[in-house]
């Protein structure tokens, strides 16, 4: 597992299963680390070792969403860290237990991506604007219905999960990048993802950290360009939303 530190508070941990980079993050706190996302299955020893090498214990695990590449090692980590908090959005928690139903007010679009049922139950359900140590939860649905991002106001770092990708170019969830199409193919509702991207951009982050791709410093221009591309996709050729599915109508 590759570990790269950015500033004083962020460490990106990356594994490359079959050339598919998957990131999780250690966020430094006074009492140790908050781990954002739990990586793919089998990552637990590498994550624990990275925390030890960087001088802290993992005190809490916060999830952006419940796709398998973000929760794969959750159960193993929870067994190794019985005192660590496990923090998940209330909406996304249902997916962890295997309940794949949609709420009546949500776009009735088929869920996408690979999901993993976990034995681990959250110790706390997160709500938007809630603090997790030094980072703040930001509602960012679209890639999944209960997706969260996390913003660190200490240095302007935005941990965006899969709301954006930087692999094969910066893109909003749902925008297909031919050289790395997987986040787009796993996105539930592109118009909602676009609205979330605008919300995240409005935070004016100085650093963008994502689930797939490199950390991007000074990301605002790239985020603006990615949002503009998503806006054109969502509007479609006639300048109208393409309906509940968020796909273009031919």
Automatic annotation (TrEMBL):
Protein origin, superkingdom: Bacteria
Entries under SUPFAM superfamilies matching the protein: Metallo-hydrolase/oxidoreductase (SSF56281)
Matches recorded under InterPro entries: Metallo-B-lactamas, NDM-1-like, RibonucZ/Hydroxyglut_hydro
Family annotation (Gene3D superfamilies): Ribonuclease Z/Hydroxyacylglutathione hydrolase-like (3.60.15.10)
Domain Metallo-beta-lactamase intervals: 21-212
Protein name: Uncharacterized protein YobT
């Amino acid at each position: 597992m590759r570990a790269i530190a950015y500033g004083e508070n962020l460490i990106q941990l990356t594994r490359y299963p079959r050339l598919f980079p998957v990131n999780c993050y250690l966020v430094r706190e006074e009492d140790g680390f908050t781990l954002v996302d739990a990586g793919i299955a089998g990552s637990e020893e590498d994550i624990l070792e990275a925390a030890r090498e960087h001088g802290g214990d993992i005190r809490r695990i916060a999830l952006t969403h419940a796709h398998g590449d973000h929760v794969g090692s959750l159960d193993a980590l929870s067994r190794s860290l019985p005192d660590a908090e496990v923090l998940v959005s209330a909406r996304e928690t249902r997916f962890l237990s295997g309940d794949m139903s949609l709420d009546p007010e949500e776009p009735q679009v088929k869920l996408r991506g690979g999901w993993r049922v976990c034995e681990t139950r959250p110790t706390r359900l997160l709500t938007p604007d809630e603090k997790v140590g030094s980072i703040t939860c930001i509602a960012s649905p679209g890639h999944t219905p209960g997706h969260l991002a996390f913003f660190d106001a200490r240095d302007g770092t935005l941990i965006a999960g899969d709301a954006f990708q930087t692999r094969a170019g910066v893109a909003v969830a749902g925008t297909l990048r031919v050289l790395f199409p997987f986040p787009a193919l796993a996105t539930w509702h592109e118009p909602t993802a676009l609205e979330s991207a605008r919300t995240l951009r409005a935070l004016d982050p100085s650093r963008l950290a994502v689930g797939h791709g490199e950390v991007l410093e000074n990301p605002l221009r790239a985020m603006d360009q990615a949002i503009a591309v998503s806006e054109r996709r969502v509007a479609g050729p006639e300048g109208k939303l393409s309906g509940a599915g968020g796909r273009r109508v031919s």
